[in-house]
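Please produce the structure of this protein holding zinc ion.
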Amino acid sequence: MEFVKVLKTSRFLDPVQGYAEVKRYSEVRYDPLTGHSSRILEFPVRAVQRADIAELIKNSRQFCPFCPGVAEQVTPKFHPDLASCERYAIGEALCVPNAFPYDENGAVTIMTHQHYVSLGDFTPGIMTDAMLCCIQYLKDIAERQADMLYQSINWNYMPQAGGSIVHPHLQLAASSSPTNYYAAAVPALRRYHKDHGRDFWVDLADEEHRRGERLIATTGSLSWIVAFAPMGIFDIVGILHDVGSPGDICVEVLENLVAGMLKVMRYIDSLNMNSLNMSLYFHLGNPLFTPHLRICPRVNIPPFDTSQINYMGMLHGETLTILKPEDICSGIRGSWNN
Ligand SMILES: [Zn+2]
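Below is the modeled complex.
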């Protein structure tokens, strides 16, 4: 497996040094599966200041459709033609239709009764019940709608990451239409299998294990890796090797999955970042597509709260970051076993 990077050198005349020539370095990295490229800039990394979100939380409490007592009144119920339950409930988690869906089957899992939970305060109980509730819904859709092969569990945690409601909630999709991510990954997996006769995900985990630079940990049948060519400022990938569909997630896999997610969330919190995107992808009936999740933190850049996504991400589909995946791996490994 190849991890291709191209080193770039840029030269200019620096006024600070009497217009002497200076060099700046950057890297273009290519994802070993899809070829998606990311640029890593050489830039002095400054610690992120924790954003003050007290006012945002306070304002968001004025009306919240997901708080207990309100959710039961204002959220929709599933259509009996499409799902076997009106709503799915496990513990405090409640899965309801997304009132503004992106697809045939769009749902939202309200994760807890608590209106706001900081990234470091999520518990195994909250995460387990929320994920189980999502799994129950997706399993049901798979049994009742055979062509909804592209299933995913997604999270926009907090407005900075695209979350329009503060109250913690996951977003589910069960679709007959692939997103661009699937459109790139599915044929690439087929190609890899044809060229090498082996499973990409097993090879990726083995290769990262051999190189030792980006493998965070192996817990049970899950591998946790920092992506070589990240989709965000950094990108943690969890691979569920023994799973094909949501219904295959047994108690042990769920325990390891939740424990890993919580470690990633705590690590992000420890960097004073309080926002993230997550997707757990499934492609039902495709043995080459091992379900995996990606978690990328979201940050705004001081002093003007500048969005991290500029023309490169919006219009060139290119990720920019100043954080080296190998440095992130050393950092997260340090906290993984605490
Ligand atoms: Zn609420």
